[in-house]
Each structure stands twice: as structure tokens, then as C-alpha cells.
Design goal:
By secondary structure, the protein is an alpha+beta fold. The protein has 25 helices and 42 strands. It is globular, with a radius of gyration of 30 Å.
Length: 1010
């Protein structure tokens, strides 16, 4: 039985994927050997890190999508390591694949046992056999399918144990009081000035003299003429209890991270809010401005002038939760029904009162009274809301015999989850969005909720003749390139050469300098006693020349080292899981360090060396002048130069193969020997053949989805961008969205590359757009040169694309659509006589025949990041004991004892303008694809930021940021529930805030995680 913890690398991968998919996407082939000179320089670090397996992975790619994604039961801390986990066979029959970790977005996950036990008396009114409407209860009934019934019984015991800080208990308990009131929450229970919710956001302000009604989004804003009042700036957004006229709360924008927690402390603050927005139901309104990037807008009217505030939180989950929170303050009531579509079955299900138990069960009353166990169960119940919705839908479907076979197939061969659909776009419910399902249901205004199988990026394609092509293994290893970037093969009659490490990721043959490379660990290499590192000679003799890397070997339809029949030990399974995580770490690091790539889709053929193919061959002689397995460390081990290593007049034809490019240039690569050359040719030829067809199939998918929607909605291509961005929900209800286009691979991190393709970029606002290749991978945008030009501007043919820039998405914000008009500056003002009012002429891209007539704003998105930094006291290093001792020493006049060390951290400067990097895609459809992919990476980084407790607001009794003194601070971490601090006396508040300094509200750890 597997004993992997729920937050282990493999468990998280299996949450959205199957063992077969893990096996196929993690395999690689290494073609060696490893040069002796490289081993001399990197022998110790490489052996200890990757061969002996003595290092725990620390890379961002192996981090969980959210710090609270784990769904498995966890025993007390002392027994957490011994907790058994479901195997790949025990949860299924007939050899079907099952998950080694449960997920609320899986069909195989039901409601928590705690929620079911609290609602045993609730009558079951579901009758899906007669109607597709259920009675509104989250409790489960007996399943008519043996498979689902077996899994439901197993999942019913999965009640995770959660550890809270004291501050989290206070805030969650008062949230429970609010929900227990069922909408009759009394504002007088909150003191004046107390914080309701806070977060860090990007803000822009516009003004208009036109009348703005109760709704304002991108579609309506086209007809409203506005003037920019302030640029995009980062602020701390605080919502407080505030009574003035008919308003009961106020939205404040701060330029400091030290925020007063109550009215008594507000007066002590030196720094007042930069702006105040009274949330009056009569004068203030809130709406979801963009359905794509989830930008919010709040507007207020005063003296015939309307001020519009655009609010952009970092994560989409936080944005939609704020939208729900602010609408609730302004009097919005949640809908009593939730509609869930099942497109594969052409069925529409209606759930009555989907959150009835979350809002009305006696658990909330007990939690509000101070019962910690009830509070724990209430939190679990809300975090399991998405899983409960899936369970209810499955129960309704299985009541109809016609869906039995489909449900069995779903249970056996796939993962099923919830996704929000908007025109041709799918937004999967996962991670933080899944945990905040209660708040994100406000998306129902613009999106349709669907129950779908979780599809991944295909592992095969078909040729024009209909033959199936399976994706070949990626390949990597050391090679010697005998060509420069411009395709020049010679200098003064001699052949140029450069030692490089090549590795393939998707359709890209990436290369990096040998000093930056890390070959994969060889299989079955004996570990020396006492951790001794073998000598270079021993490694050369023991490491095979070529070998395959397979972290997830299969036996049948399950991973061999997770097989329960073999009774793998806990240590063995943990070691295998660590090896898989380290291998993923290695692949990501190689991608991040690469210097450029050769696009395999630009390769026409792979062949042996042909003498006479280039002019340099006239001066070349046969001979082994360029040594591959050199012992010189400066040539391989410490070779970190970007220039060519040298030149030669001798080339061994038997070790060289050529890549013939479509532009007529030839790339010559030299392997170790003839055997290695032949292996490289076979592997690369298979990759070229597959990715030619795979890239064509991907573009055909974009074309077919657009053609299908044009037919279904009876529109033309010119109107497609407007309909896709601005149409109301009911107008595009018949549209089609492809789960292959918006697949789960990027969310589940199945591959090192999340997304890649062509974009147009201008790094600053007042520059021009240049075309570039962009690769999105694990929180970074890697930008590569598309076209090589001479000083005169003339285009030069070249063999590879050089890396020119990289953007770290940590702390970045993304916005798109009409909000990018100020960043475009020089928009296309072409007049089309056939379509007056339309400024963009039809365009066609010859590389794949993709056409577009979309306006500039419809294809643009902007990544904003702070360019000014400041020092701030980090909450990770707050020591309240030493602070109190220093205060006492200061009062006693002891100058020596009053000195304490304060650790600072570098944070973005609030209220300052940042730097905007503007990107344009070729069409609205591709723009949406990029925005969704980048937002997934920003969501992951934001979840890590909350988990690690960085960028926090810190209580500081001895002083505060930038000279504030005597100000009590409060952590701004967004809660899984909207934060409400109710009536607590000042001493309790101070005690609670001291606890907050080291424990984030959103950092709810499972017991036993360490």
C-alpha cells in the first residue's frame, strides 16, 4: 500500500492525471557519453545531487498549486508519515486506473464525512430519474454503480485534520457567525473602523461625465468616454466597517503595508488612505469588468461626475472572491439555483440551493460559539463545495440508466472536474479556485458551469493518411555544433565549432553551454559507502553511454513502485517520489538556462554528412581533429562562453549528421562516435516527423473551433472577436469550447513547457513591436529572437533562435482587452471601406495560414511589474519574545538590551508606477489562450507566496514602515473565506495580531507536513 503523503510530488501529479500520462510525459532518452572534462568539474555536485538521491527537491515546479490542495486524511503529527494511501488497484476493478490521491475536482471524490454526519436528518429529495432537478442537499445517497459506491464509501472517511493559528480561529469563527445569520447579519456587531477584508491590488482610476448605470463592463465601456485620472499603481486595498449616510463600509487605498486594525488605531496612523470609496448601495456599484482576466471595477457618482476604479488582484480566484464580497456588501443576494451543463451527454442539471448546508447547518452555529472541531469541519465543508457539486451531479446522472456506461468509463479511465465556459474558453476549477468555490460562483453571471472529463495535451497525432503517430521520447546529450547562428561554417577557410548540450522539449531542440548542463542520473548505479564520490575514471567506466530515464515505469496500467502487491516499503516509495521530483527539477532548470533553440518544425530532413553541401567543404579534410570526449575542463567542464570554441580543418564524416532547414541552411552536429550519431539521427528524425504533424493538428484545432462557432452563432470572422469578448452569456450559449485546446497539462505541470508560440512584444510603452518566440514555463516567460537582422535592417537567414530576455512572473499583474489602449499608443487606424468603423484589415500568417481581422485591443495583453523596491520588516522573522524584552529594556534604560536585530525583506514600493511589457497575439483566440496560461502560472506563484508568508503586512509595536510609529498592523493574507473581525476587545486584538506575525491566515497546513 502506498504511503506517499498527499502533498508529495507524485500525489499532486496524479490529482489531475493518470499513471499512463505520467509515464509518457516523464520519459527521456540520454545519448552519451558524458565527456571526461565535464565530470572533472561537476563530478561531486552531480553525483551527490542526482545520483545518490540525497537531496530534497526545492524547485518551484515541484511546489503544490496551492498550499491547501491536499485532500487526504491526515493522522496526528506523530503518525502522519505512516498514513496509508489508496493504491492504484484497490480503488478500482478490472485493472482500471485509479488515483493515488483524492481530489475534490475528481469524479471519485465525494463530500466530507463531517458534512454528511452533520446533515443526516436532511431529507433526500433528489429524483433524477423523473427530473434533472435535485432537492438542494449536499448529502449523498447510495450509489447504483458498484464502482462509485465503493469509492464513495472510501472517500467518506477522508476528513482532513487542519491546524489553525489563533488569529485564523478568530476570523473564521466570526465568518461563521455571519453565515449562520443567513443574510441577516447585524452590522452593529462590528465596531466602527474594523477591517472586513484586505489584499494587495493594481489600481487605475478614470473619470467620466457620462451617466453610468448599474452595470459597467468592457462591452458597455466602449460607449463611455473616459479620461485617465491616474496610471496603474499598486495599492493595499482595505474594506472597513464605516457608517456614513447610507453606507455601512468603505474601501480604502493605502500606500503602506502597515494597516490599522481598528478605529482606535486609525487615528494613530501617520499615513492616511490615499483614496476612500464609500460603499453606498445608492451611489457605488461594482462589476466584473473583464470576463477574461477578471479585472474588477468600482464606480461612484458625485456632483455629476463618475469616478471609475479598476481593481486587479494578482490571482483570478481572489478577484472573483472580492467581486462576490463587494456585491454582498452592496446588497446582492446569492442565486438559489446553480445550473451545471454536461456537454458530453447534452444534459443540463439544476442544483437547488447548492450552498444551503454551508450557510445554514448547525455546524456554523457551533463554530460561531467557539467549538474548534465544528470550525474545522465547517472549513472542510466549504473547501469541499466543488467536490460536493460533482457528487450531486453524478448521483443525478446515475439515476438514469442510459448514462451508466458513460459513468463507468469516467470512473475507470479518466478524471472529471468542473470548468467555467465562456464562448470558446474553458477555465478549470482547481487549486485556490476550487477551495473558494463559494466565492467564485459569482462567475455564473458571465460563465456557464460544466462537468467535463479532464483532458490533457494529446500524446499522439495522425498523418494525412490517417496513420497514428505516437509521441517519441525526448532526447538529450552532448554534441559539437559545426555551424554558427548565421549559418556560417567557416572562418578563414576553417570550420567553426562549439561544444553544447542539447535537450528537446516539445518541438524545440534547446541548447545550453556545457557548464550550465546537468545530464540525467544513470539507472542502477551503486551508491558508495559513507557517501564517497567515485573518481572521474570510475564514473566514465560505470555510466552507460546511452540510457533511458523513466521516473514512472508502468506495470499494466499502474506505476510499478506504487504497486500494492509488491508491498513497497515507505522509504522505497518516498525515494522513488523524490527521484521523480528531482528529475522534473532538472528538466526545468535546463529549460531556464538554455541559450536558444532550433525549432524542429523548421527542419526539413535529418541525414548523414554530405560532402560538398557547403562551401567550407573545399578546405576540409577527413580526420578526428575536434575531440568529443576531451579531458580538458576548460573545453567542457568550465566552458561558459557564448562565442565559438574554435575552428578546425578536419572533420570526421562518420560522427557528423546534418539538419537540413527549410530556409536552405544546414546545421552540422558531431556526436561521440558512429553509434551515437545513428542514435541521434533516429531520435531526432522521429521528433521532427511527429512535431510537424502535431503542430499542424494544433492549428487545425484552432481553425475548426472557430469555424464551428461561426456556424453555430451565424456570424462572420469579423464579428468573432467582438462576440468572443463582449457578448452576453445567453448570446454564446450554443458555442463550442475544446477541452484539448484548454487542457490540464499546464495546470498539472505534466511538461516543462506550459505554452509556447509567436507573439509581438514591446518591452516599454514608447517602443515598437517586434516579433518573437515565447515559452511559458513555471512562472517565467522566456523570450527568443524570431528574426536576425543586419545593422541595415536587412533580414538574415539563421539556424536557431537566440534567447534575448526572460520575465519572472513573481509579483506581476496581467490585464488585457480595452484597458490596454493606453499602452498601445499607436493603434491601427486603417480605414476599411468595406467595414466602416472597423480599423483592422484582414491578415494572414503564411507559416500556418491562420487568418485574423481582430482589432488591436482584442489581441493585446500587458504584464505589469513594479520597478521600485523598498525595504520592509519581514513577517517570517518577527520575534515577539525578543521585542517584548527590548521594550522592557528600553523602559528600564538599558540601551544595550534594547537593541534587537531586525531582518528586512525587499518588497515592491506601493503607490509607484511600474513597468509594462505589452504583448500582441495574432488573434483574439490566441490572446485568450496566452492570458489563461500566464494567469495559471501567476496563480501558482501567488499560492506559493501565501504559503511561504512573503510580501506580508507585519505588526510592529516599535515602529512601522517608512517612519510610522505606534501603529498596530494586521496581516493582509486573503482568507479562504472573506475576512470579518467582529467585536473583540483591544487586548484580544493585540494578542491575535502577535500570532499573525508568524502565521498566515491562508497558510492552513495539514498536520504532519513538517
Amino acid at each position: 500500500m502506498t504511503t506517499l503523503p498527499p502533498d508529495s510530488y507524485t500525489a499532486r501529479r496524479l490529482e489531475h492525471s493518470t499513471p499512463e500520462h505520467l509515464h509518457a510525459t516523464a520519459r527521456r532518452a540520454f545519448i552519451g557519453p558524458i565527456p571526461e572534462g565535464w565530470l572533472k568539474s561537476h563530478r561531486k555536485s552531480w553525483y551527490k545531487r542526482y545520483v545518490s538521491g540525497g537531496r530534497t527537491p526545492t524547485f518551484t515546479a515541484a511546489r503544490p498549486i496551492s498550499g491547501t490542495d491536499a485532500r487526504e486524511p491526515v493522522a496526528p503529527e506523530s503518525d502522519a508519515a505512516d498514513l496509508p494511501r489508496p493504491s492504484s488497484q484497490s480503488a478500482q476493478t478490472n485493472g482500471a486506473t485509479a488515483d493515488t490521491t483524492a481530489s475534490t475536482t475528481s469524479l471519485l471524490h465525494g463530500q466530507r464525512a463531517a458534512a454528511a454526519s452533520e446533515n443526516e436528518t436532511a431529507p433526500e429529495t433528489e429524483d433524477a430519474g423523473q427530473s434533472q432537478t435535485d432537492g438542494g442537499h449536499l448529502s449523498q445517497r447510495a450509489s447504483s454503480l458498484p464502482l462509485l459506491d465503493q469509492v464513495a464509501n472510501k472517500v467518506s472517511t477522508n476528513v482532513p485534520r487542519i491546524r489553525f493559528s489563533e488569529s485564523a480561529k478568530h476570523q473564521l469563527r466570526h465568518r461563521a457567525q455571519r453565515l449562520a445569520a443567513r443574510g441577516t447579519f447585524k452590522w452593529n456587531k462590528l465596531r466602527e473602523g474594523e477591517v472586513l477584508k484586505m489584499d494587495r491590488m493594481l489600481v487605475r482610476m478614470d473619470i467620466t461625465q457620462q451617466t453610468v448605470g448599474a452595470a459597467f463592463d468592457e462591452r458597455i465601456s466602449e460607449g463611455v468616454e473616459t479620461k485617465s485620472l491616474d496610471k496603474w499603481r499598486e495599492f493595499m486595498i482595505v474594506c472597513r466597517r464605516h457608517s456614513e449616510e447610507d453606507a455601512e463600509s468603505v474601501l480604502q487605498l493605502y500606500q503602506t503595508r502597515v494597516i490599522a486594525a481598528s478605529a482606535a488605531d486609525v487615528g494613530k496612523a501617520k499615513k492616511r488612505p490615499k483614496f476612500d470609496v464609500l460603499l453606498s448601495p445608492r451611489r457605488a456599484h461594482v462589476d466584473l469588468y473583464s470576463s477574461l482576466d477578471k479585472t474588477l471595477c468600482v464606480w461612484t457618482t458625485k456632483n455629476a461626475r463618475t469616478t471609475i476604479y479598476y481593481l486587479r488582484p494578482q490571482s483570478s480566484a481572489a478577484s472573483v472572491e472580492w467581486y462576490t464580497f463587494l456585491r454582498g456588501i452592496l446588497g446582492w443576494k446569492r442565486a438559489q439555483t446553480l445550473q451545471v451543463n454536461v456537454p458530453d451527454l447534452s444534459v443540463c442539471l439544476r442544483l437547488d440551493d447548492p450552498f444551503g448546508i454551508v450557510e445554514s447547518s448547525k455546524l456554523l452555529s457551533e463554530a460561531a460559539e467557539g467549538d474548534d472541531t465544528a470550525l474545522l469541519r465547517a472549513v472542510n465543508q466549504e473547501q469541499g463545495a466543488a467536490g460536493a457539486i460533482i457528487a450531486r451531479c453524478v448521483k443525478m446522472l446515475e439515476a438514469s440508466p442510459e448514462w451508466t456506461d458513460v459513468l463507468k468509463a469516467w470512473a475507470q479511465y479518466g478524471r472529471v472536474g468542473l470548468a467555467w465556459k465562456r464562448y470558446d474558453r474553458l477555465e478549470w476549477v482547481y487549486g485556490a479556485i476550487e477551495q473558494r468555490m463559494y466565492g467564485t460562483v459569482a462567475m455564473n453571471k458571465t460563465h456557464e458551469l460544466e462537468l467535463r472529463p479532464k483532458d490533457h495535451y494529446p500524446l499522439y497525432t495522425k498523418t494525412q493518411d490517417g496513420d497514428r503517430l505516437d509521441e517519441p521520447l525526448p532526447v538529450e546529450g552532448f554534441l559539437i555544433r559545426l555551424t554558427s547562428q548565421k549559418g556560417h561554417e567557416r572562418r578563414m577557410g576553417k570550420m567553426l565549432y562549439k561544444r553544447l548540450y542539447f535537450t528537446s522539449q516539445n518541438q524545440y531542440l534547446l541548447f545550453l553551454r556545457p557548464a550550465q548542463a546537468t545530464p540525467p542520473p544513470p539507472p542502477k548505479m551503486a551508491v558508495r559507502a559513507n557517501g564517497n564520490v567515485p573518481t572521474t575514471k570510475q564514473l566514465v567506466d560505470e555510466v552507460p553511454q546511452s540510457y533511458d530515464v523513466d521516473p514512472y515505469p508502468l506495470e499494466g496500467r499502474h506505476i510499478s513502485w506504487l504497486d500494492t502487491e509488491a508491498v513497497k516499503s515507505r522509504a522505497d516509495q518516498k525515494a522513488h517520489d523524490n527521484e521523480a521530483a528531482v528529475e522534473a527539477d532538472r528538466n526545468v532548470n535546463m529549460l531556464m538556462r538554455c541559450d536558444g533553440f532550433i525549432d524542429l518544425c523548421d527542419v526539413k530532413s535529418v541525414r548523414k554528412m554530405h560532402r560538398g553541401a557547403t562551401p567550407a567543404d573545399e578546405n576540409l579534410e577527413e580526420g578526428p581533429d575536434v575531440e568529443f570526449n576531451t579531458a580538458d575542463e576548460s573545453q567542457v567542464g568550465t566552458n561558459n562562453s557564448r562565442t565559438d570554441d574554435g575552428d578546425t580543418t578536419e572533420v570526421d564524416d562518420d560522427r557528423v549528421f546534418e539538419l537540413v532547414l527549410k530556409n536552405g541552411l544546414i546545421v552540422r552536429l558531431q556526436a561521440h562516435d558512429t553509434t551515437a550519431r545513428n542514435l541521434w539521427m533516429v531520435r531526432v528524425r522521429a521528433l521532427v516527423h511527429y512535431w510537424h504533424h502535431r503542430a499542424k493538428a494544433d492549428m487545425d484545432l484552432f481553425k475548426s473551433v472557430r469555424a464551428q462557432n461561426l456556424t453555430a452563432l451565424n456570424i462572420d470572422e469579423r464579428a468573432e472577436a467582438q462576440v468572443g469578448s463582449f457578448a452576453y452569456k445567453w448570446e454564446v450559449s450554443q458555442s463550442y469550447a475544446s477541452p484539448i485546446m484548454y487542457n490540464m497539462c499546464g495546470i498539472a505541470q505534466c511538461r516543462a513547457i506550459h505554452l509556447s508560440g509567436l507573439l509581438f512584444r514591446k518591452p516599454r510603452r514608447h517602443t515598437t513591436f517586434t516579433r518573437c518566440h515565447v515559452i511559458l514555463s513555471h512562472g517565467h516567460l522566456l523570450i527568443f529572437q524570431d528574426t536576425l537582422r543586419a545593422r541595415s535592417g536587412q533580414k538574415l537567414v539563421h539556424i536557431h533562435h537566440e534567447r534575448i530576455a526572460a520575465i519572472d512572473l513573481q509579483g506581476c499583474y496581467l490585464y488585457s482587452g480595452l484597458l490596454t489602449a493606453n499602452d498601445l499608443l499607436y493603434q491601427n487606424k486603417t480605414f476599411d471601406s468595406n467595414a466602416p468603423g472597423h480599423h483592422a484589415l484582414p491578415r494572414i500568417y503564411l507559416e500556418d495560414n491562420w487568418t485574423s481581422t481582430d482589432e488591436d485591443a482584442m489581441t493585446t495583453f500587458v504584464i505589469w511589474h513594479a520597478k521600485s523596491k523598498s525595504w520592509f520588516r519581514s513577517s517570517q522573522f518577527v520575534d515577539d519574545v525578543r521585542d517584548r524584552e527590548a521594550d522592557s529594556a528600553r523602559q528600564d534604560g538599558d540601551a544595550a538590551g534594547a537593541k534587537t536585530k531586525t531582518k528586512l525583506t525587499r518588497v515592491s514600493q506601493l503607490g509607484a508606477t511600474g513597468r509594462s511589457v505589452v504583448f500582441k497575439a495574432r488573434s483574439r483566440a490566441e490572446r485568450d489562450h496566452w492570458v489563461m496560461g500566464i494567469q495559471v502560472e501567476i496563480e501558482r506563484l501567488a499560492a506559493m507566496e501565501r504559503e511561504l508568508g512573503t510580501e506580508s503586512v507585519t505588526p510592529d509595536s516599535n515602529g512601522s514602515e517608512e517612519g510610522d510609529t505606534g501603529l498596530v498592523g494586521i496581516s493582509y493574507y486573503p482568507s479562504i473565506w472573506p475576512t470579518v473581525i467582529a467585536r473583540i476587545n483591544q487586548s484580544t486584538v493585540k494578542k491575535m495580531l502577535s500570532q499573525m506575525a508568524n502565521t498566515a491566515l491562508a497558510d492552513i497546513d495539514l498536520l504532519g507536513e513538517g
